[in-house]
């Protein structure tokens, strides 16, 4: 349940930026660990990559790409807000960030399929 | 103003023996045309319970003393029409968020105004009465920036709307920083270095997450988020300049 | 809790990462076609100074950016402050840098992987 004073588009954009940032930070050590498996000779990285070919894992990766994209586009919006002359079209930009993130992550899903 | 027969269901926050603990008390208030939230609170105090404490002065949106939470949103109650905020004939009225409660709907505004001082929201004059007036042209860019921020009535609606204020006790808040921005753009002021220093500390302008609750709810349609963005630019630019001279 | 220096570090690393993230996403979408394999990844990265510089910069920027972001969340939502907040921040930064450079080292210098 979202408190009444938070029910506006730009608070939701903030919440999405924080949640995606937190999720990406939690994912990062796992990502690094899996890649460091490349140094081992017993093919553990390949085992992992074969395991990750399942549809459910691909769908989770779609989620990760979406999180990365929304944090990227949302972050660009915030830096434009802070460092460029003020624009009254903040909600429009937030909507573009969301749409752009769906476009990028769906493109990933299509090429992964 | 004539009663049209409808009854409003109003739930009002009442303090207990300890001001911070309390409970909601329900009232039934006759509906009127063109009734404001402050009218409803006053009707309760005058007709139902004279011990209800609340604060107001001008009733015309100038003094900034009557702000309360109405159905969970911060409002200036004297200029908020009941029909705009009523939800299914119901209204829940609470003291402003993010401030200590003195009694019922009255908050202690000290932390709010202390932060104006901490944010260097005070004027540092550079001239005496013997000097000529400073001449600042209306089309001067700094004057235009200051103009956008200057109509604040200190009602603390933005302060109550801000989640950074709620989560960070040191954060100076949108109103104080908006005031700072109008002074940063004041060519007559002599305290700029100390001001930029004051808003670069751990509770300073850089904590703002641009959620824009302040801008969303400001009754005078000011934009504290834009003012704070200006302060972020100004402080960072000053850091770089200092670095070059060092 | 952000003072001016942490804020600046957060925005600078964000600016550095903007083109890196864009490239990263393009490479992901390109590489994922036809499935991923260790040999395919390593063929791209092994012994490549360019990818070493790319991922090395990325690791430093993302570690600083994530550590500052988590520090803000720890302060605002978990109410951690003072020395505990500093220890948490430096601990996260050190751990991310260590893991990140282990990964970059692995994909750049792994010899025997098939």
Summarize it:
The complex is a heterotrimer of chains A (113), B (246) and C (114). Chain A is mostly helical and 113 residues long.
Structure description:
The complex is a heterotrimer of chains A (113), B (246) and C (114). Chain A has one domain: 3 helical TM bundles of succinate and fumarate reductases (Up-down Bundle), CATH 1.20.1300.10. Chain A is 78% helix and 0% strand. Chain A has helices at 9-36, 44-51, 55-83, 90-112. The longest helix of chain A has 29 residues, at 55-83. The mean pLDDT of chain A is 93. With 246 residues, chain B is an alpha+beta fold. Chain B has two domains: 3-107, Ubiquitin-like (UB roll), CATH 3.10.20; 110-245, Orthogonal Bundle (Fumarate Reductase Iron-sulfur Protein, Chain B, domain 2), CATH 1.10.1060. Chain B is built from ten helices and seven strands. Chain B has a five-stranded mixed beta sheet with strand order 2-1-5-3-4. In chain B, strands 6-7 form a two-stranded antiparallel sheet. The longest helix of chain B has 22 residues, at 224-245. The model of chain B has no long low-confidence stretch (mean pLDDT 94). Chain C is mainly α. Chain C has one domain (4-109). Chain C has helices at 4-31, 38-45, 49-78, 82-109. In chain C, helix 1 packs across helix 3 and helix 3 packs antiparallel against helix 4. The longest helix of chain C is centred in the middle third of the chain and has 30 residues, at 49-78. Chains A and C meet through helix 1, helix 2, helix 3 and helix 4 of A and helix 1, helix 2, helix 3 and helix 4 of C.
**Count of separate structural domains of chain B:** 2
β-strand amount of chain B: 15-25%
CATH class designation of the largest domain in chain B = Mainly Alpha
First and last CA, distance of chain B: 68 Å
Largest interface chains and counts = A-C, 37 and 40 residues
What would the average pLDDT of chain B be, to the nearest integer?
A: 94
The gross shape of chain C turns out to be elongated
Radius of gyration of CA atoms of chain C, rounded to a whole number = 17 Å
Task: Pick out its properties.
heterotrimer, B: 246 residues, alpha+beta, Ubiquitin-like (UB roll), Fumarate Reductase Iron-sulfur Protein, Chain B, domain 2, 2 domains, 5-stranded mixed β-sheet, two-stranded antiparallel sheet, 10 helices, 7 strands, 17% strand, elongated, C: 114 residues, mainly alpha, 82% helix
């Amino acid at each position: 349940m979202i408190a009444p004073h938070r029910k506006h588009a730009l608070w939701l954009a903030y919440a999405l930026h924080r949640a995606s940032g937190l999720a990406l930070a939690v994912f990062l050590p796992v990502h690094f660990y899996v890649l460091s498996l490349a140094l081992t000779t017993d093919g553990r990285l390949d085992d992992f990559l074969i395991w990750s070919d399942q549809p459910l894992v691909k769908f989770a990766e779609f989620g990760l790409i979406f999180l990365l994209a929304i944090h990227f586009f949302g972050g660009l919006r915030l830096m434009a807000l802070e460092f460029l002359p003020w624009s009254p079209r903040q909600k429009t930009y937030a909507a573009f960030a969301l749409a752009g993130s769906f476009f990028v992550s769906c493109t990933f899903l299509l090429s992964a399929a | 103003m004539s009663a049209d027969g409808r009854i409003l269901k109003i739930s009002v926050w009442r303090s207990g023996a300890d001001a911070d603990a309390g409970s909601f008390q329900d009232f039934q208030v006759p509906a009127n045309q063109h009734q404001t939230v402050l009218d409803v609170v006053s009707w309760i105090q005058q007709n139902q319970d004279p011990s209800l404490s609340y604060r107001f002065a001008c009733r015309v949106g100038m003094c900034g003393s009557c702000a309360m939470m109405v159905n969970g949103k911060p409002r200036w109650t004297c200029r908020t029409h009941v029909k705009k905020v009523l939800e299914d004939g119901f209204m829940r009225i609470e003291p402003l968020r993010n401030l200590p409660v003195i009694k019922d709907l009255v908050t202690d505004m000290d932390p709010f105004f202390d932060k104006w001082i901490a944010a260097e929201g005070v004027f540092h004059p550079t001239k005496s009465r013997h000097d000529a007036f400073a001449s600042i042209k209306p089309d001067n860019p700094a004057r235009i920036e200051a103009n956008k921020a200057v109509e604040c009535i200190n009602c603390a609606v933005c302060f109550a709307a801000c989640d950074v204020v709620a989560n960070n006790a040191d954060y100076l808040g949108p109103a104080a920083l908006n005031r700072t921005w109008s002074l940063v753009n004041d060519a007559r002021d002599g305290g700029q270095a100390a001001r930029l220093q004051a808003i670069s500390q751990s509770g300073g302008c850089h904590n703002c997450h641009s959620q824009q609750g302040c801008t969303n709810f400001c009754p005078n349609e000011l934009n504290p988020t834009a003012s704070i963005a200006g302060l972020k630019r100004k402080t960072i630019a000053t850091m770089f300049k200092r670095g070059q001279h060092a | 809790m952000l003072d001016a220096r942490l804020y600046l570090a957060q925005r600078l690393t964000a600016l550095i990462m903007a083109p890196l993230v864009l490239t990263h996403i393009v490479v992901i979408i390109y590489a994922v076609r036809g499935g991923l394999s260790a040999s395919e990844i390593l063929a791209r990265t092994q012994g490549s100074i360019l990818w070493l510089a790319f991922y090395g910069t990325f690791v430093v920027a993302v570690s600083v950016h994530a550590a500052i972001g988590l520090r803000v969340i720890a302060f605002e939502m978990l109410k951690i402050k003072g020395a505990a907040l500093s220890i948490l921040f430096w601990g996260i930064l050190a751990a991310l840098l260590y893991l990140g450079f282990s990964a970059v080292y692995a994909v750049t210098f792994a010899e025997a992987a098939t």
